């Protein structure tokens, strides 16, 4: 947790010390790190300072898949107390392992996240993430308990029951994916419970990209402060970075992770401020140490000092993954950029889906966006006006045309976890 105050000097010297230790230890215990160093013709002695880190080749998700299930293990199986895994929608799943010490460190990192977002032992937190192979449920659970927060491990799904629990237990905080938080507000209203009348005061959201517009929707609906937090299973789960009270970028726990930002095409390390792919070297993992893990996530290190007192650098909110990028008629677009444009329209309610398909030889982009039902019972001209306006906004931003369809509330499928924002049918159509 955040007790003693660290200076930047402390953080940077701790990073180098721990980095050398991690590489030396990894070279003894991790068959994967041994292979990685051997391929590059390196010994641990070749890596003295952070500037040498770039000599080490990256670790990728494919490396984890190729080593499924136990090839990344760097300790005896007897010392492993937990497995988590990704769902593996695109190929084999990836498995991650934890020793008891790994779990304890993770709990501390998560307690820090919750403390940074203002939670205390007077809060009651409802954890609306899946408890299972997904890291969300357990990560928040252990972190909240460590901080002394009263935990309601309600898990994902069962939306009406979640609202009843919030009402009956006077829950003050909850955590879920941002898209599910919006759905919770809708269901509360269907139950005649005004979401802002609940006892909630804050919420911590993440696991998927979300925009400022969605933050505003969540904050207004529940009358809370909504904070972003970031992480991935390969590094621990949630607990890598989070927002402070400034809500302007996510502080990275640099005393536990070294962060580099690289050009995803060339692998070259970029300067602070430049946008690229986040690469992390965790400095504390026992069961599954990793060097230079490529996350696929796109962001940049922010240069500006934060108004809070934390000494950790911030990254801008994650706008998407390099492998999420859509190439539509030759134009590169991230789904989050489309959200950025449509969310500026006052009719935006937070639920939308992007569909890309082939029409003949051409790519066709359509965007289904939910609007309030009252628009459908009003003047058709209003609908046509919104539709035209949105199509024009897309055209003038990306220089491609899109068919914007306004659809009724609830017609886009809700997910209890991460929302599926993009349906790309082009692969199936070939
Ligand atoms: O989603 C861990 C997590 C759970 C983080 C709950 C925060 C809250 P994975 O299932 O391995 O782990 O997915 C990790 O999700 O590489 C990003 O692409 C995306 N992601 C996670 N948090 C954010 C966020 C968890 N705040 C992948 N903003 C990551 C944008 C996020 N994308």
Produce a short descriptive summary.
By secondary structure, the chain is α/β, with parallel strands linked by helices. Helix content is 30%, strand content 24%.
Q: Can you offer a commentary on this structure?
A:
There is one protein chain. This protein is of the alpha/beta class and 430 residues long. The protein folds into two domains: 1-322, ANL, N-terminal domain (Rossmann fold), CATH 3.40.50; 326-429, 2-Layer Sandwich (GMP Synthetase, Chain A, domain 3). The chain has helices at 8-29, 31-39, 61-66, 100-116, 136-147, 159-169, 178-190, 212-222, 335-342, 380-398, and strands at residues 80-85, 95-99, 124-127, 150-152, 173-176, 202-206, 225-232, 237-243, 250-252, 257-262, 276-282, 293-299, 301-302, 314-315, 320-321, 326-328, 331-333, 352-359, 362-370, 403-407, 422-424. A nine-stranded mixed sheet has the order 4-3-5-6-7-8-9-14-13, sandwiched between helices. It has a four-stranded antiparallel sheet with strand order 10-11-12-15. Helix 8 links the parallel strand 6 and strand 7 (225-232). The longest helix is centred in the first third of the chain and has 22 residues, at 8-29. The chain starts with 7 loop residues before the first helix and ends in a 6-residue tail after the last strand. The model has no long low-confidence stretch (mean pLDDT 95). The structure holds 5'-O-[hydroxy(phenylacetyl)phosphoryl]adenosine. 5'-O-[hydroxy(phenylacetyl)phosphoryl]adenosine binds next to strand 7, strand 8 and strand 12.
